[in-house]
Amino acid sequence: MLTAFLVFFPLAAALLLHFAKGSAARILALGASLIELVAAALAAFTFVRTGSIAGVDLNWIPSAGITFHLGIDGLSLCLVLLTTFLVPIILLTAFRHEEYENPGAFYALVLFMQTGLLGVFTALDAFVFYFFWEVALIPIYFLAGAWSRSDRRIQITFKFFLYTIIGSLFMLAGFVYLYLQTGPAAGSLAAHSSDIQAFYNLKLSASEQSWLFWLIFAAFAVKMPIFPFHTWQPDTYTESPTPATMLLSGIMLKMGIYGCLRWLLPVVPLGVSQWQQLVMVLAIIGIIYGAVIAIRQRDMKRLIAYSSLSHVGLMIAGVFSLQAIGLQGAVVQMLAHGVNVVGMFLVADAIERRTGSRSLPDLGGLTRRTPLLSVCFLVMLLSTVALPLTGGFVGEFLLLAGVYQFNMWAGALAGLTIIFSAVYLLRMYQRAMLGPDSAFSDTITDLSGAELAMFAPLIVLVFWLGLFPGTFLHLSEPAISSILTLVGR
Amino acid sequence: MLPIVLLSVFGILNLFLGFLRSNRVLLPLVLVVLALIFGVNLLDWNHAGSLPGFLESPYISQMLTVDNFSVAFSGIVLLTALVLLPFSRSYVVAGEPNLAEYYSLLLFSLVGAIMMVSYNHLIMLFVGIEILSISMYCLAGSDKRNVRSNEAALKYFLQGAFATGILLFGIALLYGATGTFQVAELATAVATPTNQTLLPMLYVGVLMMVIGIGFKVSAAPFHFWTPDVYEGTPTFFTAFMSTVVKTAGFAAFLKLLVVALPAASPVWLPTIQAMCVLTLLLGNVGATVQTSAKRMLAYSSVSHAGYLLLGLVAGHGQLSGPAAQGIFFYSLAYSIATVAAFGVLKLVSDQRQREDYVGLGGLARTNPLLAFVLTVAMLSLGGIPLTGGFFGKFFIFTAVAGQGHIGLVVFAVLMSMVGIYYYLRPVIAMYMRPAEPGAEAPIVVDGFQSATLVLLALLTLVLGILPGFLSGLL
User: Fold this and answer.
1) Is A63 close to B424, i.e. CB distance below 8 A?
2) Phi/psi class of residue B95: alpha, beta or left (left: φ > 0; alpha: ψ in -120 to 50)?
3) What is the ipTM of this complex?
4) What is the pLDDT of residue A252?
């Protein structure tokens, strides 16, 4: 019941938003996202106390053996918590943009997106997973395109949409093939079943798994994105309105990594071991490529976009190390990266709203009049750089340990991500906040109380993840070990 | 049977109602009668015979048979006509003098369509196709002061008459080889040929029938008439043409190939596969280069014929199971989305006087409802989840993949990726491009049409969210 509520409540709220105007729409949207957060917290308490949460398992298309199967285990729970935690902050960011036309529709699409995301993170049937996977794409396409002020928005969002949907159609083809290999589920009249368990039980030859791996991985590779499927990402992140960028980078990207953990590694383990090294190489290329390009960027959002590309590379490398510590690192880093990247975009947004520019050469010497903003910026930045005590450190440390166990040289190369990110992020901080005064140095205003309230939970979580990562590691540990058991079978 | 009788009788009565010269009465009357006939049609579900004990299927010396298959497909064509009719409001408002004739022709064409989905005898198939086609030839040219409409009618008629000739020739050859017109007898006669020397005649007959029906459903390489005819025909009738004709045509095709001629599959299966590949390729690639939304929908309807041909590939021996199910669901989702798309397009083109993507600019601002409905329709035609079109494709693709035709499915999936490219273009125009200068005024939509559009969007979403209740029907 709680699972169904979590997935569908945002959708119901989004529909209701159609009837709300002005500040009522804001209150309704924010209220709904907070209720959702409370529900997620409740789910977490239930999970900690009893070890499980009742899922949903309904007949969806009985004649085809497709069930509407949702469930939350420790891994799902981490991502559900991340999503429900970030959506209120993303909504609050959207509230700051008075210039958005038809804001009610904007908030409704954010909530609609939340339903899609939560559906992806809880689906336990291949076609339900695919369904929500695409459901999440439709709102973000409109959010990124219709509210963007960029001249190139049409081409950029078109490219984004085509890339992601083509990737996911490959995944669908892979799922259909797997589905046709399954036998009937117990007590079902249909000849096949698309339940995750039926997929896990399949015994496919190594050659089948080899190409199935690429069909399924195509969708995840585009979504994360991994080099060389990333070309849609920097433009989309840069030119989308900031709340949409936050959804893309903070949550939607994790769909790809979650998909790898849940639907790729355990379903085609032989394919994974066959292509493991290639993916690792691509991931490490992505790490270095993203970082090198980030160093040269002037636009703050674009810089963060490339930085995200680099950090995602490390997460992929950790996942494909197939070490328990690497996978656990990926879970923590998914949370930490979600918080960090949303925090970084929040900073970029705060500066852009004040100065009308996010270009580093225009900025400089802002810190004098903005002590609070500087502190928030620095915390988010240091967590992204993976300084000890912050969430980024725990995540990246575990990931690097996993990659190192896989291969020492891979570990060494992947470790460059920390050095590089220190270079480009500190450079960004220095150019924007320190350095010679710019036209805005004397006029810029500091964070208001309301803005500080948006940063506060992010900062709390950064330190929580850094000091007590066990909270989340305990949640995901059983799920990760069962995934690894399936991989090792 | 009862729907055919009622439609014919009311069609003739309706001609006389034209003398009243009161268009305002006509539309509601036709709507109510169609709704009634739709209900009467559903009465036949699971028991063959409209009035038990009085009229039992099969009818007319076993020439027509009513079963769940025919009821389901008749249901689609009647529903399509029902939801399309509100968009003829502009004729009512404009005081079109021939409206009663138009409605009668539509009703007669529905008779043809229902005969096509319930034939049990090849002559009935032929008669059904002709009743449907002749009505369509007239309606294509109904805008008689417009050169394009005249061109459309002439092109459609000349090519259509030729195709009908080929179809009839095929039927004759088939009769010559087997000595029967009956579907069930054909199946046994083809499976156990008594005279081997007649086999070439039989196979040529099968191919000619495939060509004849292929023309009607605009399957490549017999699709060349489609873009010109669709573009020239008044939008209201284009919508009818691209939904009812296609649905009925594919139901007839399915029955012919998998029930009457399963034993001839070595001949028709490769043909259908080749046509399918060609249709998907030409339809989808053709649609990408169009600048007119109406022409794009014409090519898109060609491409949908390709997906439905794909469904035929999976059929074997019976009018139930995955293939029939897939074609049923696909036709339904396609018809609803197409009516919605043409409905919006008609409203826009009537009031902004242009049918290209530019004419859709800024629609999201001036008419959010129209933009939303067209978006849902486009997503459904593109096969994106949350809409019925996704499950239509899904059912067909899984049915075909289940028969082992993996290569074909992969090709169809690649083609549907191309489809997403052109279905997104109207959406981009509506949501991300401004209106043309001078076209910023909202489009006037009366409440009835708005309600119909909302209903169509909802139906599409319901098919996409809860496909279960319709997926096990056949």
Assistant:
1) no
2) left
3) 0.90
4) 93
